[in-house]
């Protein structure tokens, strides 16, 4: 009798420890099973793939990964890329829902990579459908581009861009929503010279290789942080002229064709101008320098019709409480949320670290403290640019993106 009880107890423990396969889970319909898994974070999905072959089969299917990505798009996160001692760290936080005047949010650490400090400004870290391009990863003492997924920890190195003696490389990760293709678009240029070669690398092909494309727009250099909206990459370039000055270049990801959008007569573009996604349209934020407690307003331009070069201008007057909330901080534009809120922050790490949400319709400002990066900030807090020097300022620089989504698709 004692032996039977021990056998029964052992059998019961084994049954609770070992996850049941999908085929034997008769009490849970497959639709409900998928619905439960869709609510898990990306890292938990990766662990669930190891439960059994049947679980792995379901979680690797295209229909599941597309459903997971669709849900992720409805709740985008903020992605922080921070540099420290020749390494690039990734953190993320959720957007604050229904924030009060002052709120807090926790940051989650994802992964890190070795990175060439000298090339920190020669590329953008804007996430596209969960993927991020590192244009100049330091790999075996060579600078090569890499694609990574901060949510799953996956990454792979891409072929090096052919420069032919050029000094600078501008790279953008773009996406074609029709063909569902990721592409890496790069421009090579010489210092104080024109962008000489334009190249494209299509991801997902058997043999990854760069190919040259023709560009009908002549610019001396491009802005690093372009933005891709509905399959069109927008970036600011200094025109070879005439006319001289800065203009907005459009690159259609699918057709790989270029065109130019004329700015409005009283729109003052410069290299520090911020391009944003304003409810599916191209937006331009103009502040003419840092945003401080003495700032009273800034401009928001929205591209109404790209073919007719029509723009609408909005003057955003900051609320009276702006001076008290911002204090002596110098801010830069980060972008806009899907709800139409303008997000600002400092371009360097500090302790505490804040992100500011400005609601255009309500004319309200919310300060959100980002917690969880204290270990990263230990002994590297920058309190003053004047006291620490420009080297410390660059050393602790941070890039912030608002459109990061979790994608569980295996690369």
List strands and helices in order, with pairings.
Layout: H1 2-17, H2 30-38, H3 42-48, H4 53-60, H5 62-73, E1 77-84, E2 87-94, E3 102-106, E4 108-114, E5 132-139, E6 142-149, E7 154-157, E8 168-176, E9 181-189, E10 195-202, E11 211-213, E12 219-222, E13 227-229, E14 232-239, E15 246-252, E16 258-261, E17 274-278, E18 281-286, E19 297-305, E20 310-317, H6 322-326, E21 332-336, E22 341-345, E23 353-359, E24 364-371, H7 374-377, H8 385-388, H9 390-395, E25 398-404
Kindly estimate the percentage of residues that lie in beta strands according to DSSP: 35-45%
Rg estimate, integer Å: 24 Å
CATH architectural label of the largest domain: 6 Propeller
Distance between the termini: 54 Å
* Number of strand elements: 25
CATH class of the largest domain: Mainly Beta
Alpha-beta classification: alpha+beta
The total of helices stands at 9
Question: What is the average per-residue confidence, as pLDDT, rounded to a whole number?
Answer: 79
Provide the CATH topology of the largest domain.
Neuraminidase
């Amino acid at each position: 009798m004692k032996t039977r009880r021990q056998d029964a107890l052992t059998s019961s423990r084994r049954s609770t420890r070992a996850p049941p396969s999908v085929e034997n889970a008769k009490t849970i319909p497959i639709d409900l099973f998928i619905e439960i898994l869709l609510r898990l974070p990306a890292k938990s999905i990766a662990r669930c793939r190891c439960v059994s072959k049947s679980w792995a089969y379901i979680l690797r299917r295209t229909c599941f990964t597309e459903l997971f990505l669709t849900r992720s798009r409805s709740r985008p996160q903020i992605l922080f890329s921070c540099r420290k001692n020749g390494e690039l760290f990734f953190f993320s936080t959720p957007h604050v829902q229904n924030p009060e005047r002052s709120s807090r949010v926790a940051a989650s650490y994802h992964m890190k990579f070795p990175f060439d400090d000298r090339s920190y400004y020669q590329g953008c870290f804007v996430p596209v459908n969960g993927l991020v391009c590192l244009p100049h990863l330091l790999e075996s003492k060579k600078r090569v581009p890499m694609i990574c997924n901060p949510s799953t920890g996956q990454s792979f190195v891409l072929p090096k861009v052919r420069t032919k003696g050029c000094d600078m490389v501008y790279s953008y990760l773009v996406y074609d929503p029709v063909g569902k293709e990721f592409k890496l678009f790069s421009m090579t240029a010489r210092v104080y010279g024109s962008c000489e070669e334009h190249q494209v690398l299509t991801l997902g092909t058997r043999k990854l290789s760069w190919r040259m494309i023709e560009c009908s727009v002549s610019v001396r250099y491009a802005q690093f942080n372009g933005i891709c909206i509905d399959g069109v990459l927008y970036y600011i370039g200094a025109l070879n002229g005439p006319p001289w000055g800065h203009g907005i270049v459009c690159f259609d990801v699918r057709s790989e064709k270029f065109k130019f959008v004329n700015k409005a007569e009283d729109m003052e573009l410069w290299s520090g101008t911020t391009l944003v996604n304003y409810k599916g349209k191209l937006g331009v934020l103009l502040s003419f320098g840092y945003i401080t407690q003495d700032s009273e307003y800034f401009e928001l331009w929205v591209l109404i019709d790209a073919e007719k070069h029509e723009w609408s201008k909005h003057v955003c007057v900051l609320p009276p409480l702006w001076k008290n909330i911002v204090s002596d901080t110098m801010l830069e534009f980060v972008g806009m949320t899907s709800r139409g809120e303008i997000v600002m922050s400092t371009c360097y790490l500090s302790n505490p670290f804040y992100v500011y949400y400005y609601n255009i319709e309500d004319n309200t400002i919310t300060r959100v403290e980002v917690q969880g990066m204290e270990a990263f900030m230990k002994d590297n807090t920058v309190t003053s640019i004047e006291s620490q020097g420009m080297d410390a300022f660059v050393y602790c620089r941070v890039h912030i993106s608002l459109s990061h989504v979790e994608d569980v698709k295996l690369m």
